[in-house]
Amino acid sequence: GVVLTMTMVIMTALGMTRERERGTMEALLAMPVRPVEVMLGKILPYILIGYVQVLLVLIASYVVFVVPVVGSVWLLLSVLIVFITANLAVGFTFSTVAKNQLQAMQMAIFFFLPSILLSGFMFPFRGMPDWAQWLGEVLPLTHFLRTVRGILLKGNGLEAVWPHLWPLIAFTLAVMAIALRRYRRTLD
Predict the structure, then answer these.
(1) CB-based contacts of 65: which residues, under 8 Å, 6+ apart?
(2) 14, 49, 69, 72: which is deepest, by most CB within 10 A?
(3) Which pLDDT does position 185 carry in this prediction?
(4) pLDDT value for 186
C-alpha cells in the first residue's frame, strides 16, 4: 500500500505536469476528447503498473517472508483497483494544480508523508490522538491497509471488507470529481 501510494501519486502528477511543460498538452487539448477520456487514458496504463507491483510484493512476501495468504487473492485484486485509482486520481488532481514538476513532486510528498504517518503503517492507529485518527480515516491508505491485513491474514470476505471499501470508493469519486473540475480545456 505504501509503495503504491508513493509511486502512483508521483508518476501521475509528474506525467501530466511534464506534458504541460513540454507542450504536448496542447496537442492533446486540440483533439476532440473530453476531460474524462483524457483522465482515463492517463490512468489506465498506471493501473497495470500497480498490479505488477502488487503481484511482485505478494510473491516476495510469500516466498521470502512466508506471509500466509488466508483470504481470497481475487478479492484483494478487486479491492486493489479502487485503491490504485484513488492514488492516481490524487496524482492527476495535483497535476492540474501544479505549474511545474517540482510543485507536483512537493504536493505528492505532502500527501505521501501524512498517509504513512496517519494510516497505522508506522504507528498503532488507536494510539494516535483523536485528531490524527480523524485525519487518518480520510486517507485511502488507512482503509487499504486494514483491508489487506483482513484479507491476507484473517481471510476476511466482502462483508468484512465492505466497511473499509466504501470509504475508498467515496474518496476515489470525490478526488476524481475535483480532478475533472480542475482540468482545463485550454492552457492558461
Answers:
(1) none
(2) 14
(3) 52
(4) 44
Q: Would the CA dihedral through 38, 40, 44, 46 be positive or negative?
A: positive
Cα(88)–Cα(47) distance, integer angstroms: 8
Residue linked to cell 476528447:
33
Angle at 87 between CA 81 and CA 91, to 5 degrees: 135
In angstroms, what CA-CA distances link 69 with 60, 66, 76, 127? 12, 9, 10, 27
Segments in the chain below pLDDT 50? 186-188
Does the model's pTM come out above 0.85? yes
Whether residue 94 contacts residue 110, with contact meaning beta carbons closer than 8 Å, is answered with: no
E-assigned strand segments in the chain: none
Structure confidence by residue, pLDDT tens digits, 136-151: 999 999 999 999 999 9
Could you tell me if residue 120 is left (phi over 0), alpha (psi between -120 and 50 degrees) or otherwise beta?
A: left
Give the residue carrying C-alpha cell 484513488: 86
Q: Residue 8: which of 71, 93, 72 has the closest Cα?
A: 93
Per-residue cell: 44? 489506465
